[in-house]
Write a structure and sequence with these properties.
The protein has 524 residues and is mainly α. Helices cover 67% and strands 1% of the residues. The protein has a single domain, classed as Up-down Bundle (Growth Hormone, Chain: A). The chain has a two-stranded antiparallel sheet. It is found in: Membrane.
Amino acid sequence: MALGILEPRAKKVPGTANVFDQEWKRDPTLKRDRTGNIILVPQPSEDPNDPLNWPLWQRDLMLLLLCVVSAIATTASPLVAANSVVLAVVFRVKFEDAALLTAYHLCGVGVASWLFVPLARVWGKRHVFLFGALLMVISSAWGGSTGKILDYKSLVWARIFQGIALAPFESLVNDVVGDLYFVHERGFRMAFTNVCLFGAAFLTPVCVGFITSNDSLGWQWSFYFLSIFMGAGFVLLFLFLPETAYQRPRYLQIDVNVGPVPFHDSVPAPPKHSFLHRLAPFSGRKTDESFLKLLLRPFPLFLQPAVAWGCLMQGVIIGWTVIVGVILAMIFLGPPLFFTEEEAGKMYTAAFIGSMIGLVLAGFYTEYVTRILIVRNGGQYEPEFRIALVIPTLVFSGIGLYGFGIAASDIEKYGWLVVEVFLASITISMVMGATASAQYLLDAHRDIAIETFTCLIIFKNLFSFVLAYYAYQWVLERGFERMFVIFGSIEVGICLLSIPMYVFGKRNREFFYRHDILKLARLR
């Protein structure tokens, strides 16, 4: 029993790796980092087109570009949060109908993610990112143009297509980290991608509030600006983001392979691709597996305990931030504060600050704690070490959700600043929870990581759709305090599920390696 993790009968389990040179110390064929102490997991090939062979600065710049464009794309989700009242008045619909524009958008993200992921598995990720960026340009321009005809149904469909355009970024960016980096390089970068995907969007209502209150611009320009910036993002992705998916021989995947295999390339390395070759949207099939089988794969995976835990861990905490984003304007626009749209938009700044704090804490905590646990475990890395990040997630989510509900229920007594502090605490926990689940699934189940991320996205968006759909009804029926006390209690319970996941995680990995749920479902 290593550090509380129950050992299975099998000696080798997918996901477990000796990253500090211990078991394979005498094996000269294994490639290591520059220090010579850390074994590279997975092992890079001799192919110059293998992303793991690219310079680290190049890989970091590519990830930074993708994260920046993804952050811009994710602004589509809260785009109407701060000006729901304005849209309700302009389009002459109920306030609840204006809020549902976010719910319909999230539904589009969830359904489209299910379709885009198998496309990426078969033909690579590059063409999917380019399509998403281009569709975001078109759908955002469409949404802004509805201000001329004042057609609510047209705006609803524009929001749905914005969700479809966002889906490639939400479902595939985390997996790109697995394409570009070795296990020991992923911690902070995974936290950074989750901040860009789920934290940076909190600045959107701040900007939207300013744009909406500006007489020379108006709410339409929040859509137009998104279209313009995504147009620039499309050009940058086209020029500087080559395909990251790579068919790595299984014997090089020493974190996945558990059998005795040679650690040698048996074929000569191909020539390095030219810049013009990299511009092609497609670079051939990345797998021989059936598209239809890949399309159906996520559904049986919901029965895998690690995937179910990841869905709850990430999807629920993100769902709480979604419902806060939907109702926050109600808190500040109404009595007793009567903020303007611009002032209400500025209240989302705390959420963004919280996400930045969460990035720093998650990146530092996960790398520091994981490295300590590896050393104490004799140089052997277990993916369950990533679950340790749930500890601060539990603390910050409990403080944030309970405190937000109590303060929001009597904002005249506590003031807006107290509400903002608890909001920041919620988003800190959101970044940590999302990072913990994504890192664990990526490292523990690398061979099906993209399908597990699809499960996360589907669950997260459908759960958020339900929360956004019923948000105002629940507030009116139960009030802020009761509602968020319930949310906080649910979150505490989910975090506590991490204890059995940590203890039995390795046995779970070994069991489902022997009893492949996808093979049982005839999908592999």
